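FORM 12-B: Structure-to-Sequence Request
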């Protein structure tokens, strides 16, 4: 079986490596999941050739926070985020979430994954915390099925909520789990799916939803399980919950997490816009990652993340779409553009900004570091063949091609890419998902959405 691919005559290959190299008029040889050579005039008789004339090539984008199940509640004015606080919004939206079942998870995940792949994302973390009485426990299993169908490299965050409304949470009773059943199912899917080997396509993250909606013991047991199994941890933090945490515990969320060991190189948190400057050093010193999700921050009118100050404190920042309830799309190129524009606006107050290329590295190599995937995130010999290409021969990009590093976020290249490759396999090319009947899947998904939303 031929497992070699030769990308020929790329106009530019933006490596995002430590030296920030850009290769012009170059080729790339791929064997299996791995990049073998980058250079001019490469040849390989047994390789399948991809003509990359007029194409810019980039490392695949890495999405470090999402909620795929929310894809089926997009474009709905009845749950419009800007009109509510986070806690008010959670209280309202969970009343809809409790209707989610296994088929909703499968087709909403397919929808989000397809959107990601079409816009250059090759690795995605999803925070699946929606477990209802009728959904059963095998929801990550359905997501793994969807990821395998589309060829997406998938990190599944197994979440939960354990604290009842009667004790101060926003969770309906039929969406609660006990800590014991949560930990048991985490152990099940870790044993079944987690593959720690280089180039693996499936990994598991232990991810209790958020401290305000779970018992402290849930987080303590999560830390113990994750460390014993060698998997990563994730939760929401600094997303408007600190006032409630102060009322309940007399301390801010980061301090609460720090006391129980829910910080470290194997931990990344979502949002962080409520972190105070003195907390940046704690996050940086503990090597805890922060997934920045620009769209919900803008939609909810929340503070713009002070990326420069966080970077000065060695905080590892990556990029996430967040769930479609607060984004309405799964386009990480769009999030890349928005994140850059937010920082440009914020820079007027502090006098320096994050460049478009720095934002690209946040969405690629930083994402790989956040998920513990040292073999991903840049285009280098020995690294994974995860990449996307854009076509530069189109009229709308005229006059921008002199700077391939900055073009994406700077000029707003946010539409579908020309090609997406994951693990050395082309999964999307020239407007078509490879190997699936997209029209059939869309029709099936629309039927499931209609049943779900009208139930």
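FORM 12-B RESPONSE
SEQUENCE OUT:
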């Amino acid at each position: 079986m031929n497992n070699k691919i030769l990308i020929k005559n790329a106009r530019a290959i933006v490596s995002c490596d430590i030296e920030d190299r850009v290769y012009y008029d170059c080729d790339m040889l791929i064997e299996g999941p791995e990049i073998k050579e980058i250079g001019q005039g490469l040849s390989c008789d047994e390789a399948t050739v991809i003509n990359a004339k007029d194409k810019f090539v980039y490392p695949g984008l890495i999405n470090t926070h999402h909620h795929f199940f929310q894809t089926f509640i997009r474009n709905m004015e009845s749950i419009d985020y800007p009109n509510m606080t986070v806690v008010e919004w959670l209280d309202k939206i969970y009343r809809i979430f409790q209707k989610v079942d296994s088929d909703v998870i499968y087709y909403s995940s397919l929808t989000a994954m397809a959107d990601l792949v079409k816009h250059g994302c090759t690795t995605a973390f999803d925070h699946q915390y929606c477990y209802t009485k009728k959904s059963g426990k095998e929801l990550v299993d359905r997501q793994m099925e969807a990821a395998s169908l589309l060829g997406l490299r998938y990190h599944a965050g197994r979440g939960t909520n354990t604290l009842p409304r009667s004790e101060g949470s926003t969770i309906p009773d039929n969406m609660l789990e006990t800590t014991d059943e949560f930990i048991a199912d985490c152990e099940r899917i870790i044993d079944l799916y987690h593959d720690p080997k280089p180039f693996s396509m499936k990994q598991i993250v232990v991810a209790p939803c958020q401290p305000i909606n779970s018992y402290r013991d849930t987080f303590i047991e999560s830390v113990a399980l994750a460390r014993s199994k060698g998997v990563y941890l994730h939760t929401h933090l600094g997303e408007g919950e600190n006032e409630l945490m102060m009322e309940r515990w007399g301390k801010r969320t980061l301090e609460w997490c720090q006391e129980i060991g829910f910080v470290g190189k194997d931990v990344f948190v979502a949002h962080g816009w409520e972190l105070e400057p003195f907390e940046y050093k704690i996050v940086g010193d503990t090597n805890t990652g922060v997934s920045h999700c620009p769209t919900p921050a803008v939609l909810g009118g929340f503070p713009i993340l002070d990326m420069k100050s966080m970077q000065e404190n060695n905080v590892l920042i990556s990029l996430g779409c967040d769930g479609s309830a607060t984004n309405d799309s799964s386009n990480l190129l769009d999030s890349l553009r928005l994140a850059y524009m937010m920082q440009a606006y914020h820079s007027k107050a502090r006098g320096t900004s994050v460049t478009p290329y720095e934002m690209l590295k946040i969405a690629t190599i930083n994402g790989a570091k956040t998920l513990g995937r040292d073999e991903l995130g840049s285009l280098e010999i020995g690294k994974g063949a995860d990449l996307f290409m854009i076509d530069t021969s189109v009229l709308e990009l005229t006059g921008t091609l002199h700077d391939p590093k900055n073009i994406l976020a700077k000029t707003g290249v946010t539409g579908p890419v020309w090609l997406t490759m994951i693990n050395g396999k082309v999964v999307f090319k020239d407007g078509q998902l490879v190997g699936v009947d997209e029209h059939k899947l869309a029709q099936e998904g629309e039927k499931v959405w209609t049943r779900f939303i009208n139930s």
